[in-house]
Design goal:
Length: 111
């Protein structure tokens, strides 16, 4: 069983930056794909970014060029650096590690 703990969410002004972290513990498979989804109020959960164990990345079109995903396999942690944030980035951000989901962390982009 894998446990995930997310952190780094909060309130930021448009154009600002945040860095989300997701630390995994338990029965971790180091070759798992990991990444992030988000869900805004009244909307379906949508893909944000993912990274393979080998470091290959994939981004949603809306986040490409602004968000950067990375992972530290030694620390079993995945990161999401979010720059040039927009109000439409406001959502609860969920990390996944293989088939396990985190509890979510709120990101609010507003003046």
């Amino acid at each position: 069983q894998v446990q995930l703990v997310e952190s780094g969410g909060g309130l930021v002004q448009p154009g600002g930056s945040l860095r989300l972290s997701c630390a995994a513990s338990g029965s971790i498979f180091s070759d798992s794909n990991v990444g992030w989804y988000r869900q805004a109020p009244g909307k379906q959960r949508e893909f944000v970014a993912a990274i393979t164990s080998g470091g290959r990345t994939n981004y949603a079109g809306s986040t490409k060029g602004r968000f950067t995903i990375s992972r530290d396999n030694a620390k079993n942690t995945v990161y999401l650096q979010m720059n040039s944030l927009k109000p439409e980035d406001t959502a609860v951000y969920y990390c996944f590690w293989g088939i396990t989901w985190g509890q979510g962390t709120q990101v609010t982009v507003s003046l």
